[in-house]
Amino acid sequence: MNSTNTLATLLLAASLSACGGGGSDSSGGTTQQPTVTDQLVSTTVAGYPHAVNIYRTAGATRAIVLLHGGGGDLNAVAYQVGLNSSATTATTATINWAWLDANKVTLVIPQGQHLASNPGATTWSNYAMTSGQDDKAFLQALAAQVRSDYGLTDITLMGHSMGGAMTNRMWCESNATFSRYVSLAGPASSTFNQAATPCTPGSTAAPYMGIIGDADSIMQTAGAWEAATWTVNPTVVLASIEAWVDNVVIGEFHQQQARTAQACAGTLSSSGYTTTGNVDTWSSCLGRLVLKRVHGADHGVASLDAQMGAASNLDVMDAVMAFAAAH
């Protein structure tokens, strides 16, 4: 979470179309039917100020809505997860269409907003921070628009850092909006420990996967894996003080125990994990709830990828796709 970042310049993208395929017309002949090619679309949702980039993939069968962290922007987060070769701009030439095409994924990346008094703190209203916007309603409307405009009903909400905290808020408060939820180094706000704001995903809670490092210097996870709460590093909070509502978050393992109880009346033991390389994985509720502890990983996506151990920077995204395919 880089609180010094400012809002990146948004570029309008060119739309490409091609013709192909055939269909019968009323005279018994054939007509050429348009088919969709990979496109970069820049759009908005009516009633909301958020810019949205859509990496529209030909033949996509599912979508991922990706939320950046506090102080971040929509181009940087796509770069961080390996789906854009530029951290500052997006064009059809910079997008990793090979991965998107292979996985049949359309990527939807909205731009978080900021308080007028704190322009560097682009974020989400997730109880830890505030953007000054009703981001819950925005994400509900965005999901509806993706379903309506692109015919995609399988939509994953995924966020890093404060985007992950927003993902947690949606899992708790608007569980049916998305098909599944993935948080990268973004625990739920401790607001959900309060009686007035309980986490209530419902009896048919959607799948959730959390991935976080045990050396996260922002969430201060080192030596505190089973702690009930973690405190966001004070130096980060001071850099964007106006945007912070509460810098205490719920420890991911502690919250995963609560999720397990809520989703399937199950229990989760601290020793009940499997280990592959640097990653410990807890799985509960028939695999619908997954938590991955990445040994030696810091807060950034690059650190999570590096410690998860593959040659490319797509370890996180491959884990997300495996989870989506299974649930």
UniProtKB/TrEMBL annotation:
Positions of the AB hydrolase-1 domain: 64-315
Keyword vocabulary terms for this entry: Carbohydrate metabolism, Hydrolase, Polysaccharide degradation, Secreted, Signal, Xylan degradation
Localisation: Secreted
Main location: secreted
SUPFAM superfamilies the record matches: alpha/beta-Hydrolases
Known function: Involved in degradation of plant cell walls. Hydrolyzes the feruloyl-arabinose ester bond in arabinoxylans, and the feruloyl-galactose ester bond in pectin. Active against paranitrophenyl-acetate, methyl ferulate and wheat arabinoxylan.
Family listed: Belongs to the faeC family.
Record-given protein name: Alpha/beta fold hydrolase
Source species: Pelomonas candidula
